[in-house]
Amino acid sequence: MTVYTAAFDWARRHVAAERLPTAVLGVADATGIVALDGFGAATDTVYPQFSITKALVGITAARAVERGLLTLETPLTTALPDFGAARDDIVRLRHLVSHTSGISEPELDTAVPLRTELLTRGRDFRAGTSSRYSTLAFEGIAALTEHATGVAWHEDVRAWAHSLGADGLTLDHAGSIEVIDAAAAGLDIDRFRANRSPGAGLLGRAEDLLRIGSELLRIHAGESDGILAPATLQMMLRPLTGDIPRLDPYPAERGQDWGFAFNLRTRAPGLIDRDAYGHGGWAGTEFWVHPNAGLCWVLQTNRAERDGVDIDELDNAVVSGR
After folding, report:
1. Which of the residues 18, 47, 48, 117 has an alpha carbon 20 to 30 A from that of 304?
2. Where are the domains positioned within the chain?
3. In angstroms, rounded to a whole number, what is the distance separating the alpha carbons of residues 30 and 23?
4. If you write DSSP's letter for every residue of 251-280 in order, what string do you get?
5. What share of the chain is helix, strand, coil (3-state, %, to 5)?
6. Strand residues in the chain grouped as ranges (E)
7. Residues 139 and 196: beta-carbon distance below 8 Å
8. DSSP H or E stretch at residue 119
């Protein structure tokens, strides 16, 4: 049995050097969790997931697509008729999930309600012509899924996640670990929490994400179609950004594409295996699936500024199984 010694040594080394305050690292395959350990924190510690939330909300939207309730072409105005009154383009679901909507982005800890931000923000570029990372766009995805299904986005995520035993996902911060440098990094954590953002608001344990990753691997292997049909998962992994300009903070040299809410690392220069998709979070959380290698891995940590930490090193150590 592979024990992933190099990967766990990587986490242990970064915690010992105080580049990471804590770390929980886990690996899963299609059979379930195969390795899990914590460094400075218990393995069941609840961490803010930040933008890993986007991948889970993307799954929720894809489930609505496969039930015939939405398509990638559904306009945001279907749910929010007042959106984009001053725009001469149409923002569709495919733009929202691929960071190509052109909606001007507020701060992560905006004091303005997210729905108000979505309806009143200006346009940075015409939909589909460039890619700029957007957390606010996921408020639009939530609006579309809630309009189509009648279920609040977080309740929808909770329902399908619970079916996999991933029952720790929550919007409740009580008992969760703190991001040690949130204030120093410029985030008003109380204002951020109040937003309950569908692009960044969920919390959970490593185990929750590993169970989800294991289910995705079973779908790839043709062993399950529980939360998504195989064709739906393949749809989520279809690149939607092509060769359009990539704007900061994900310029072209980062070597990724955006699929249906998933970051596709198909051109990442530092990876051994580029057959990888998933998402990272603001405070260092990571969730990545490697279908060809038949594994997924999760890192939980809690620091926004992580000088000297190269996640590609960890990805390569997991994939190699050393």
Report:
1. 117
2. 40-290
3. 23
4. -GGG--EE-SS-EE-TT-TT-S----EEEE
5. 35, 15, 55
6. 23-29, 32-39, 47-48, 203-204, 257-258, 263-264, 277-280, 286-290, 295-300
7. no
8. helix 114-120
Q: What are phi and psi of 129, to 5 degrees?
A: -95, -20
pTM of the entire structure?
0.97
The b-or-e profile of 216-230 (16+ CB within 10 A means b, else e) is: bbbbbeeebeebbee
pLDDT tens-digit readout, 38-74: 999 999 999 999 999 999 999 999 999 999 999 999 9
pLDDT, tens digit, for every residue of 185-212? 999 999 999 999 999 999 999 999 999 9
Q: Which CATH class is domain 40-290?
A: alpha beta
Strand duo 203-204 + 32-39: pairing: unpaired
In the structure encoding, which two tokens stand for residue 193, read together? 């929490």
On whether the CB atoms of residues 5 and 322 are closer than 8 A, the answer is yes
